[in-house]
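Notebook B, p. 112. Complex prediction, attempt 2.
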Amino acid sequence: MDRIFQALADGTRRDMVERLVSGPASVSELAGSHSMTLQAVMQHLKVLEACGLVRTEKVGRVRTCAVQPDGLRLAEAWLSGRRTGWENRLDRLGELLEPDS
Amino acid sequence: MDRIFQALADGTRRDMVERLVSGPASVSELAGSHSMTLQAVMQHLKVLEACGLVRTEKVGRVRTCAVQPDGLRLAEAWLSGRRTGWENRLDRLGELLEPDS
């Protein structure tokens, strides 16, 4: 979980995830759509791959990247659990303050 | 957004958010429930406050901390948007592959 949130704490990596959500892409396609060097893209990909948000596969000379949704789901579930907990507490407070409503 | 994900990329800070979801707490209460020094708690609080996930207020000698839900909502919305995008793409792929279903 640390590594997922850490990977998402960078705007370029979030953009890369966003791009890959619309379909797999090669490393050069990712570099092109972000005006980055291949080396910079590879470094970000390494972070995204290490935490399981992205999977890459090399066929011949082309490395193709795809989003792995489980990491997104895990982080989303943590956040939505906390938000729900907070809303439930507000509801209980509301009931205590206005027992008739 | 960078700072929110960065703040959540630490297990202790996520635990502190989790604790504060169930209600406001003083710095010493937070320290006690995490077996941490006050100084360590203050450092984590600084990060959580800077990105807007937590608000602290000092009254007399006691600093009270409370969760600010907007940051959680923002991060959750980003993740759920990406997940939905991914699921929609899968649905479209499914329709392409099995047009009769």
